[in-house]
Amino acid sequence: MTTKEKKTEAKTAVSPGMGAILHKGGATFRVWAPHAEKVWVTGSFNNWAEAQQALKHEGDGYWAGTVANVKAGDEYKYVLQNGQGKLWRNDPYARELTSSVGNSIICDLDFAWDETIAFEIPAWNELVIYEMHVGTFNDNNPDDGKPGNFMLAAKKLPYLRELGVNAVQIMPPMEFPGGISWGYNPSYPFAIEKDYGGVVAFKTFVQAAHAHGIAVLVDVVYNHFGPGDLDLWRFDGWSENGGGGIYFYNDERANTPWGDTRPDYGRTAVRQYLRDNALMWLDEYRVDGLRWDATAFIRNIYGHNNSPATDLPDGWSLMQWINDEIDARSQAKITIAEDLQGNEWITKDTGAGGAGFSSQWDSNFVHPVRTALVAQDDAFRDLTAVAHALDPHYGDDIFHRVIYTESHDEVANGKARIPEEIWPGQHDSWFSKKRSTLGAALVFTAPGIPMIFQGQELLAGAWFNDNSPLDWQAACEQSGIAWLYQRLIHLRRNAEGNTAGLLGQHLAITHLNNEAKLLAYHRWAGEGGAGNSVMVVLSFANRTISDYAIGFPQAGLWQLRFDSHASVYDPAFEGQVSGDVQAADGEYDGLPAHGTIQIAPYSALILSQ
Questions:
Q1: Within 10 Å of residue 42's Cβ, how many Cβ atoms?
Q2: 289-292 vs 334-337, strand pairing mode
Q3: Which residues are registered as beta bridge partners of 522?
């Protein structure tokens, strides 16, 4: 080969990967468009010449080519010819766009990660998740029409660290129409929402979170795309039955509650697209896990359970494949399914036929617990239902479920936050504070991975709205409630070495009195004993209960570690009656010892030795 031939080959060398792959001297562009007859790439680097830079067909519908003198920050699009028409399309793999109706941007994916930050996600039984909507979490100028962003969110990481949170779950940060959205309508799954700050801002946020000892989980949406501002729709001009073309089912399987845009899980290139997306978050952004939205609609057309006639086997195998790929890279990465059907196969190993998720959101916890908390009359608080909600039932690991009383779904769509549901218009009332914090105690002492929604610890009222930021100034008025949450989180994580039982695999409901509205349960780790056994007592009654006998796992002094009625949490919590308990030998509630407790209205006690 002559020197001239070598130079020509170097200029036209095609790099592996999808989308725009930046390298020395230019960039390789690769796109999947099986029904295109010709494909070009155009952009600011060639003055948007429509048919100057042709891509070569590689086979299987892929087109690729290298363009010299392309640099980071350049804008681009693909031009696809199908018949007599030409389609201008954004890159399905674009990492950033000028906007959801703008142009793709070539990104330099290199980032100066601080390798001195040695972070690994905590063990799952130690996780405390804080669900965050970037656009409203910290917006210091809510009147400018722009959402909050990653840099503003990062400023609150010290606050979250002090609260005790060790994982934030980011609601979908992918490019969506406009700048205001929940994020569950992704237009470009690989792109970081421009109004949130883009690629560099998100990597900076992840690094800052890790520096504060906080894991980052990303909410991904694979059950549908869009449906707005969606260049994937009939991407290369082909479709059937009025459907969406190559990225989507083109029959009844396309239908979802959010539009006819369910991805075609049986098409090899689409499966690869979703797999590449999942691994991008873990590899390129170094996030610590994924929460999958609405997995019931990935495995079944209508989101049904045990309905073989409408199941989507390709969706099930897709989830297995991606979870296996993630596990092969790191057993520490966590994947969480929002399935909400109580299906134990979601968290079973793929080798046993399960979907392979680490954990799943548990609707069997949130609904009965919320019902008991918001009921206006004590007579309607069903402690049997609450006790059933406490019982772990997804295999042999109690941390196969995420438990919560508030999430983005529970505080919107016609539903308000718990304090507001308890007393509409009076979310800061005594009753709202007492019963919402009783719910918090349940979340942090029950078996499962606890999660709270942003502002829950600040007694946020009303409902979640994607253009109504948290009012941090008003939140200062509820600093005592935040302190209560902090105390619960520290006990949940065994920060003082005497509540390891809350990290353990064991639960026993030891006392249930539906008439008195009192519930007690024992949590323990290993063989139990001092430091490893915790007793939790909950009163769902609007009265003080005195000299009430319950069973204890062991005789001796049981120290009061937490009382939600302590006045330090709110001046209105007057007249604390609870204290340490001296348990004596003698069987009670099926336990070898017994003692008497005092408990204030709508209160929670945590005791340990």
A1: 21
A2: parallel
A3: 508, 535
User: What angle (nearest 5°) sits at the alpha carbon of residue 474, between those of residues 471 and 475?
Assistant: 80
pLDDT in tens, 7-61: 333 345 678 899 999 999 899 999 999 999 999 999 999 999 999 999 999 999 9
**Predicted confidence (pLDDT) per residue in 268-323, tens digit:** 999 999 999 999 999 999 999 999 999 999 999 999 999 999 999 999 999 999 99
Residue 307 lies in a domain: yes
Co-location of 71 and 149 in the same domain: no
| Beta-carbon contacts of residue 16 (< 8 Å; ≥ 6 apart) | none
- Helix 363-374 / helix 430-445 crossing angle, nearest 10 deg: 150
The sign one gets for the Cα dihedral 265, 16, 196, 116 is positive
Distance, in Å, from the CA atom of 560 to the CA atom of 606, rounded to the nearest integer, reads 6
Strands (E), 133-201: 167-170, 174-175, 188-192
3-state secondary structure of 357: coil
Read off the pTM. Answer: 0.96
DSSP string, 489-538: HHHHTTTTSS-GGGGSSEEEEEEEETTTTEEEEEEESTT--TTTEEEEEE
Q: Enumerate long-range contacts of 421-429, CB under 8 Å, 24 or more apart.
A: 421/370, 421/373, 421/374, 422/373, 422/374, 427/459, 427/460, 427/461, 427/462, 428/459, 428/461, 428/477, 428/478
| CA angle, residues 162, 164, 168, in degrees to nearest 5 | 105
Q: Which domain covers residue 81, as residue numbers? A: 11-105
CA distances from 117 to 207, 213, 262 (A): 8, 9, 39
Q: What's at 50, amino acid-wise?
A: E
The backbone torsions φ and ψ at residue 14, rounded to the nearest 5 degrees and listed phi first, read: -105, 125
Question: Residue 546 sits in a domain of what CATH number?
Answer: 2.60.40.1180
Q: In the numeric block, which tokens belong to residue 500? A: 């390891």
**Secondary structure (3-state) at 87:** strand
Residues 350, 356 contacting (CB under 8 angstroms): yes
Beta-carbon neighbour count of residue 431 at 10 Å?
15
Please tell me the distance from the alpha carbon of residue 150 to that of residue 156, in angstroms, as a whole number. Answer: 10
**Cα–Cα distance measured from residue 251 to residue 243, given in angstroms and rounded to the nearest whole number:** 7
- Output the pLDDT for position 9: 34
CATH number at residue 328: 3.20.20.80
| Bond from prior residue into 177 cis (ω within 30 degrees of 0) | no
Predicted pLDDT at 11: 45
